[in-house]
């Protein structure tokens, strides 16, 4: 599929049935797989033969869907995880352990910030958070000899800052570490970070990829471009024998194109078991088949709503990277010339209290923790997803206390704008 356009990959990537086989990806609803001899099975356990033996590690339905996302991102290997949280955890924990350090953009999803700054810190991994707008010198200053990765989000949820992918990649590579990017909001339809030097991409497939609020899931894709073997002392897990897998050295056995994902499957999926249910992978694939069609409409609605909000003097401020005049407009145009996403952030005059009142009056957009769905929804992050953060952390994450995250679905933009208008009227009568 790799020479086809993204639209064709969305519809047909990852699975090519043979003669007389099912047209749609089959759901292999089986925990286990049968073998004729113990020897056959032993080869699988030793990673000497490829095949399935237990769905906690791998399942054919998941692998077909992962192969599609891999193709869409232009990677060499991919795996599905049970959630976006698991994807980001695995992506980092695959190369960083106790005593190591990671540089991350401060403008990231609240759940990821919590994972990094609290839970992974408890595991002995230190994070330094940098502004997504930091210059090269500031980014360089955040690195330490024990830094193992750099992390950011293409379009941050919910601050809607746009990452300077080329600059982050340049700095990461200068320090001999990979750049990992969470590409959830842009999706590979609008941005393919590998084309700009990023090494590993993660997704919460729960959002646009599924797109219908049906299944929580995640994905990790490897570009196969980062040369771990240049820094064997930094990445011993990939470059020296894994005693828990009979001494296999991942970079030797699976090459640069397969080492990272094979290690994540063989060790992390084996030990943590955060596999996506095959049924969910099937639902995710249905979402992927229309992702390119939906993204275009999400972006169209996002821009229409952002333009309307910018013109209404009851709105204090609007952030939408696709809106001319936005702080990130030029950067978004470079990395996402066809559109950004459907999420618009804004503040209603009167602050936090009026924001909550406004949201209560909306009829189409429902108040939900969810985002990036076919149905419009909205959220007040300071009192929901980001409520563990103090005011300083909120500011660093680009989330002001009055921020309303409005996720434009694929309804009519005319109806969405009329709904916003009537809710504002109800607040300001
Ligand atoms: C939602 C989200 C996550 C977490 O994903 P889950 O599927 O909810 O675990 C990670 N990153 C971003 C950008 C998200 O929007």
Largest sheet: 7 strands, mixed
Class derived from helix and strand content: alpha/beta
Number-wise, the strands total: 12
Tell me the CATH architecture of the largest domain.
3-Layer(aba) Sandwich
- The rounded Rg comes to 22 Å
Q: Compute the number of helices.
A: 16
How far apart are the first and last residues' alpha carbons, in Å? 56 Å
**Low-pLDDT stretches:** none
Strand content: 5-15%
Which fold name is given in CATH as the topology of the largest domain?
Aspartate Aminotransferase, domain 2
Describe the structure.
About 40% of the residues lie in helices and about 15% in strands. With about 425 residues, the chain is α/β, with parallel strands linked by helices. It folds into two domains: about 30-285, Aspartate Aminotransferase, domain 2; about 290-425, Aspartate Aminotransferase, domain 1. It has a seven-stranded mixed β-sheet with strand order 1-7-6-5-4-2-3, sandwiched between helices. β5 (about 180), α8 and β6 form a beta-alpha-beta unit. The longest helix has 23 residues, at about 250-270. The termini are far apart. About 50% of the residues are buried. The model has no long low-confidence stretch (mean pLDDT about 95). Bound molecules: pyridoxal-5'-phosphate. Pyridoxal-5'-phosphate binds next to α4 and α5.
């Amino acid at each position: 599929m790799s020479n086809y356009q993204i639209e064709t990959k969305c519809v047909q990537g990852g699975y090519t049935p043979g003669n007389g086989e099912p047209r749609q990806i089959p759901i292999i609803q089986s925990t286990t797989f049968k073998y004729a001899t113990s020897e056959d099975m032993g080869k699988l356990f030793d990673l000497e033969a490829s095949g399935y033996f237990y769905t906690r590690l791998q399942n054919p339905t998941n692998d077909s869907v992962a192969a599609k996302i891999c193709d869409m991102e232009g990677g060499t290997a991919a795996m599905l995880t049970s959630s976006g949280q698991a994807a980001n955890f695995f992506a980092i924990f695959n190369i960083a352990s106790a005593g190591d350090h990671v540089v991350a953009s401060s403008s990231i999803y609240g759940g990821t910030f919590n994972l990094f700054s609290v839970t992974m810190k408890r595991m002995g991994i230190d994070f330094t958070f940098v502004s997504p707008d930091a210059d090269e010198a500031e980014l360089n200053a955040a690195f330490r000899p024990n830094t193992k990765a750099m992390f950011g989000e293409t379009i941050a949820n919910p601050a809607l800052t746009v990452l300077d992918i080329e600059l982050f990649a340049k700095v990461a590579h200068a320090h001999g570490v990979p750049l990992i990017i969470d590409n959830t909001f842009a999706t590979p339809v609008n941005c393919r970070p590998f084309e700009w030097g990023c090494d590993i991409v993660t997704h919460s497939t729960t959002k646009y990829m599924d797109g219908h609020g049906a299944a929580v899931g995640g994905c990790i894709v490897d570009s196969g471009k980062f040369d771990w073997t240049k820094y064997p002392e930094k990445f011993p897990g990939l470059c020296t024998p894994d005693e828990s897998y009979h001494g296999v050295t991942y970079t030797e056995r699976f090459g640069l194109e397969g080492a990272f994902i094979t290690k994540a499957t063989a060790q992390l999926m084996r030990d943590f078991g955060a596999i996506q249910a095959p049924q969910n992978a099937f639902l995710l694939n249905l979402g992927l088949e229309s992702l390119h069609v939906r993204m275009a409409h999400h972006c169209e609605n996002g821009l229409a709503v952002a333009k309307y909000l910018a013109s209404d003097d009851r709105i204090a401020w609007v952030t939408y990277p696709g809106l001319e005049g936005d702080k990130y407009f030029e950067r978004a145009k470079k990395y996402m010339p066809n559109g950004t996403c459907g999420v618009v952030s804004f503040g209603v005059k009167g602050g936090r209290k009026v924001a909550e009142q406004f949201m209560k009056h909306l009829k189409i957009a429902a108040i939900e923790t969810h985002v990036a769905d076919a149905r419009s929804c909205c959220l007040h992050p300071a009192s929901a997803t980001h409520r563990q953060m103090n005011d300083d952390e909120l500011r660093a994450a680009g989330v002001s206390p009055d921020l309303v995250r409005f996720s434009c679905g694929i309804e009519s933009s005319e109806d969405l704008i009329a709904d916003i208008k009537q809710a504002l009227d109800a607040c300001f009568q």
